[in-house]
User: Fold these one by one.
Assistant:
Number 1:
Amino acid sequence: MAGEPHTDAEELVLAFLAEAGDAFVAGEAIADKLGLTGAEVFHHVDALRAQGYRIEAIPARGYRLAEIPDRLTALEIRPLLNTHDLGQAIHAADAVGSTNDRAKALAEEGAAHGEVVVAEAQTAGRGRRGRAWSSPPGRNVYLSVVLRPDLPPGRAPELTLVAAVAVCDALRQAGVDAGIKWPNDLLAGGRKIAGILTELGSDADRVSWVVVGVGVNVNARAEDFPEELRGAATSVLLERGGPAPRALFTAALLTSLERWLDLHAEEGFEPIRDAWRERSVTLGRDVRVRGDGRELVGRAEDIDAMGALLVRTADGLERVLVGDVEQVRGAS
Ligand code: BTN
């Protein structure tokens, strides 16, 4: 389903056009930059068109990348990436059990920081707290990234919040008014649009690997969700009223994730906590939290330096490390 592989020069032409976004780029500019002749540029553009890319050409203005094929393979994603590590190696599959399981196996076999597993469908997609993640083929993004952070195991949960901020930004960039529900659900219009499942391999002192798994409902229509989720789930398509190219979304997501990971590595959790707070749809609300074998009702006040939720209840301030949050009215 990937079609013919691109040549390196084709990939460079594609990357150049992708970088220009919606703008036209003069054929000579591409030729000069890549050391090609105008005829060679034309030839590569033609080859890309044959693989499903729609590239407009207007004399005196140049070329414009109008549409990319909706496939999730390394060939589609790599030229659109703006990263140093994330996605430099992409393992793409038509279907896997769970991209997280595949990424964990790769991590155990020595995969490098930033290797990505992406699939068109999952047959056993997993959510938080033992739940299933609905993963119909060809519509959404299911991806897992292997990270090798220099962190003690106790700080690994911070990476889930890093990822939540990054996914939120990628959704906003795609035109969706998304926010984060504690700990790491992405909501749009009160419905779930994306989720994150982080898993960890470590010894007593050091993290060996972290797998950050992200599921985003991109082009799912209402009928693609299991009936019991229809009222509670949404997608980029449903929110924007039109489909989004998944490769472009994936590249934007990996680029955003790397930017926030770099900030976390350089400056620690504080700027992430601030960014999370700014994007939160939980803080300041009256909530019911279930999990950890207890149920609390109160006002979600803040998250602490470990990412735990601080809830002001009638009995005082409670700290919640694991749980599901539901908004309530008239509580606290
Ligand atoms: C949640 O909100 O419960 C977390 C959902 C995480 C789903 C993603 S899809 C890609 C990766 N592979 C999985 O099996 N799960 C995560």
Note: The pocket of biotin is lined by residues 98-100, 122, 125-128, 131, 133, 142-144, 185, 195-197, 213-215 (CB under 6 Å).
Number 2:
Amino acid sequence: MDKSKRKAIIAGNWKMNKTPSQAKALLEELIPMVKDADCEVVACVPYVDLAVAVETVKGTNIKIGAENAHWEKSGAFTGEISTDMLKEIGVEYVVLGHSERRQYFGETDETVNKRTKAVLAAGLIPIVCVGELLWERKCDITDEVVARQVKLALYDVSAEDVKKTVIAYEPVWAIGTGETATADQAEEVCAAIRATLAKLYDAETAEAVTIQYGGSMNAGNCDELLAKTNVDGGLIGGASLVAEKFQPIVAAASK
Ligand code: PEP
């Protein structure tokens, strides 16, 4: 397996943090720090920060992502944002199915699938989050839970489109808790995700998909995690909010 064939992606997930002026300031600080990165660098930011973020990173190697998108093109969906709206302002990535959306906002595997198809149809790149609860890991059903989420998220998605899709393995018990999956645990599940993709599509397609790890990744643990064969990058929450904490992760993925 040749990991170098896949695009390593380090993406920040800012969640509900940073006002537009704070977003501009953080990105301006980050731009010179990651300008020589040998991986894709993405900042997924709150909706109201998107326009200023896209403007701020123009001409740099940083890409901007949203943290969600609705599956309908337009219509009576108060409070929602469409893929066309994101595309028009220059957004390139969209985080979908994050565990916080599943936990607090009624996101289901079915809506993740609808969003994934809409995002791909708009020519944007979905970062589809999957991961088990602590209880599910204790019951030894991690691989089943994650395989189910992957299969449902990708229902009716073509092989061509799945190659453009990023999957983020985020064990729910490791998100924002300071508790990280060990590098071996991360590798085991990322490899299982790739095996699921090979069964759903074929080996060549599975080999092309970028699979990130997310869950308390930081400067201290990123080297070991990112060195694993099936870990092609990271989705970073807390450590993406401070330039000095995000930059070492980008540097580790660039090695
Ligand atoms: C996340 O929210 O996707 C995440 C991985 O958060 P943290 O890095 O803070 O655990």
Note: Residues 13, 170, 175-176, 214-217, 235-239 surround phosphoenolpyruvate (CB under 6 Å).
